[in-house]
Amino acid sequence: MMGFSKFAKYIFLCLITILLVVSGEDNAPILNDRAALLSFRSNIVLDPELALESWIPSVHVCNWSGVGCNGVKNRVVQLDLRARSLRGTISPSLSNISSLLVLDLSENFFYGHIPAELGLLSELKQLSLSSNLLGGKIPTEFGFLRQLEYLNLGSNRLVGEIPGTLFCNGSSFLEYLDLSNNSLGGEIPLKNQCELSALRFLLLWSNRLVGRIPRALSNSSRLKWLDLESNLLTGELPSEIVHKMPLLQFLYLSYNDFVSHDGNTNLKPFFASLVNSSNFQELELAGNNLGGEIPSIIGDLPTSLVQIHLDENLIQGSIPPKISSLFNLTLLNLSSNLLNGSIPPELCRMGNLERVYLSNNSLSGEIPSAFGDIPHLGLLDLSKNKLSGSIPDSFANLSQLRRLLLYENHLSGTIPPSLGKCINLEILDLSHNGISGIIPSEVAGLRSLKLYLNLSSNHLHGPIPLELSKMDMVLAIDLSSNNLSGTIPTQLGSCIALEYLNISGNFLAGPLPVSIGKLPYLQELDVSSNQLIGEIPESLQVSPTLKQLNFSFNNFSGNISNAGAFSSLTISSFVGNKGICGLIDGMPKCPKKRAYHFVILAILLSLFAIPSALCIFGYPLVRKSRIRRSMAIFSGEDLEDEEHERKELKYPRISYRQLIEATDGLLCGSVGYIAPEYGLGKRASTQGDVYSFGILLLEIITGKRPTDALFHQGSSLHEWVKSHYPYRLEPIVEQALIRYALPVTPVHHNKIWCDVILELIELGLMCTQYSPLTRPSMLDVANEMGLLKQCLSNDPSTSQMIEEASLKVNGF
C-alpha cells in the first residue's frame, strides 16, 4: 500500500513537470525564440511609438506586440512590426526563430545590410523589408528560402546584381517578387531552365537593369502584373513573352530603350500579342524610342482596358478612329510624339474618359465640339499642336473639367464666356494663340481656379476685369503680351494666394496699386513694358516674400531704395523709366533735398501768431469750443496752396463781388486742393479757402500730396488720414518727426512736437470736412495756431528754435 502511494506521487510529479514544460516558457524552443527577439530589440536605437513597450519579462512572449505564436504557444511563427517608426539594424539573431513563417519589418527606418543569416529561415513564407534604408547587396543565401511565397525588398538602397538563386532555386511557390526602387544592376537573371510557374507579380521598376527581357519569363503564364519601368532595358517589345500571359492585367515598360518590330517601324505585332489578355487593364510604354504608327488593331484590345500611355515616343501618323472601341478607357496619353492629322471625332465616343493628353504633336484642324459630350472629362491637354479655329462653346458642359490646356496652337476667335460654367476648373492655359476680344467677366470670376490662369501672348484687349479679384485661391496669373489697357485694379489685392503675377507687355496706364505689394505670398511680379506712372509703392519694397521684380520700360518716377525686396535687384529691373533715381547700381543718384521741412511748421506757427494774419482773413473770432464740437462730424476731401497767403499783399485788392463775378462757373484753385463744393458748381467762398489750407496742412504733416497715386481710386488725403484717426496716428507722427527734425533738435523735445503734430492733424481734419458749414473759420484756425505757438513758447529752447526758423523764412 505504501509502495503504491510512492508510485502515485511520482506519476503526479512527472505530470506536473510535463505540464510546466509544455504550457509555460520553460521549454527550450520558446525560450530560444524569446532570446532571439530580445537580441533583436537590443539593436533598436529609436522606438518613438513605443511599439516594443510590452516586450518585458512579466509578459508572455506570445503576447508581445507584433509577435504571433502557433496554436499551443510553444513557437514564435510571426513577427509583424510594419510601419512602427523603428530605427536600428536588423539583428542576425532572428535566424534562430527557426519556425518563423512571416517576417515583416517594412515601412520603418532600418539601415545597414540585410543579414545573410535570414536565409536559414527555411520555413519562411513571407518576407518584407520594403521601404527602409537598407543598403548593400541582396544575400545570395535568400536562394535557400524555397518555401517563400512573398518577397518584398522594394524601396531601399540595395546595389549589385540580383542573385540568380532568387529566380532559379527549384522553388515552385514564389508568387510575389518586388525588388523595385533600388539601384540594382545587371541583367534579369532568369535562365531558360528555370521556371517561376507560380509567379503572379514581378516588380523590378526603377533600377539600373540592362539587357533584354529574358524569354524564360514566358514560362510564368500566371503573371498578372509585370512592371519593368524606369530601367535601361533594350531590345524589341516582348511580344512573344506577353502573348503567353493570358492573365496579364498590368504591363509597365515605360522609360527604357525598347523599340518596335521590323527595325522600329511596326507596332502591330506587339498590340496583337495583347488581344487575348481578356482582363488587361493598363498599358504603359511611355518614354522609349518606339517608332511606327498606331495600328487600328489597338481597337481590338480587351474592352477592360482603362489606361494607355504611349507618350514620349517617335510614333507618327494619325490617331486611328477605331481606338473609340475601347469604351471603358479613362486615360489616353499620346502626347510628345510625331502624330499628325486631325483629332478624330470618334475619340469623343469614349464616354468614360477622364484624362486626355494629346499635346506636343503636329495635330491640325479644329477642336471637336464633341469633347463637350464626355461627361467625366477632368483634364484635356491639346497644347503644342497646330490646331486652329475657335474654342468650342460645348466645353461649358464639362462640369468636371479641372485642367484645360490649349496653349501654343493657332486658335482664333474669342474666349467663350460659357467657360465660366466650368465651375471646377483649376488650370486654364490659352496662351500663345491668336485669341482676341476681351477677357469675359464670367471666366475672370472663376473662383475655382487654384493653380494658374495663363492668357498670355494673344491679342486680348480691353481692361483687366474686376472679377479677377474673386480668384482668391489662384497661385499664378499671366496676362502678359496682349493689348490690355486701362488701369491695374486695386482689387487684385484680393487674390491673397497669388505667388506669380505677370501683366507685362500691355498698354496698362495709371499707378501701380499699393495693394499688389501687400499680397502675402507674392514672389514674382512683372509689370514691364506698359505705361504705368507714379512712384513704385513702398509696399513692394517691404514685402517679405517678393524675390523677382521687373518695372522696366514704364514711366515710373521717384526715389528707389536698395533695401528690402529691392536689395537683390539690378538696374535691368528699372531700365526705361526716366523719372527714377536712387541707390541701385547704374541708376542716377537723386538730388539732395534742402533741410527746410522742419522750418515749414515753424513758418505756419509764426505766420498765424502775428496780427497781420488776422487782417488777411478778416473774420470775427469764435471760441475754440466751437472748433472742438465740429470734430464729431468729419467728412471732407481735397486741397490748395499756402503761397496764396504769402503773396496776397503783393497784388491789388478786389471786392468780394468782383471775385464772384471773375470766378463764377469756374473751378477755383489747383487740382487736389479744390474744395468739393466747387465741383458741384458752388461759388468761391472763404470756407473753400479753409478747406485748401487744411489739405496743405495734412500734406505737410503726412508728406503725401493729394494728387498721389494712393488717392486716385476714389479715396482722398482727408479720408486716408481720417482712417488712421485717432488710434493709428503713431506711424504718421513718427514719420513726420523723422522728416522735419533738425540735427540740433534735443531728444527730450520729441514729446512736445508729437503733441503739436497731433493737434495739427486734428486741425487739418476739421478744415477739410465735406460740408462747408462744419468747417471752422480762418480766424478760428489762426487762434488755434496761436495757441500752439504759445504752448511751444513756454519752453525757452523750443521758442528759440521757432525764432531761428522765422529768421530763415525772411531769408528765402
From TrEMBL:
Question: Has keyword Transmembrane helix?
Answer: yes
The listed locations are: Membrane
PROSITE patterns recorded:
LRR (PS51450)
The record's section on PANTHER family has: DI-GLUCOSE BINDING PROTEIN WITH LEUCINE-RICH REPEAT DOMAIN-CONTAINING PROTEIN (PTHR46662), PROTEIN KINASE DOMAIN-CONTAINING PROTEIN (PTHR46662:SF105)
**The Leucine-rich repeat-containing N-terminal plant-type domain, residue ranges:** 32-70
Name all Serine-threonine/tyrosine-protein kinase catalytic domain ranges: 671-729
**What organism does the UniProt record list as the source?**
Liquidambar formosana
Q: Which residues cross the membrane?
A: 595-622
Xref: SUPFAM superfamilies: L domain-like, Protein kinase-like (PK-like)
Where does it sit, as one GO cellular component term? membrane
Where in the sequence is the signal peptide annotated? 1-24
- GO molecular-function terms, A-Z: protein kinase activity
Tell me any Pfam family this protein matches.
LRR_1
- Protein's name according to its UniProt entry: Leucine-rich repeat receptor-like protein kinase
Q: Which UniProt keywords apply?
A: Leucine-rich repeat, Membrane, Repeat, Signal, Transmembrane, Transmembrane helix
Where is this protein primarily located? membrane
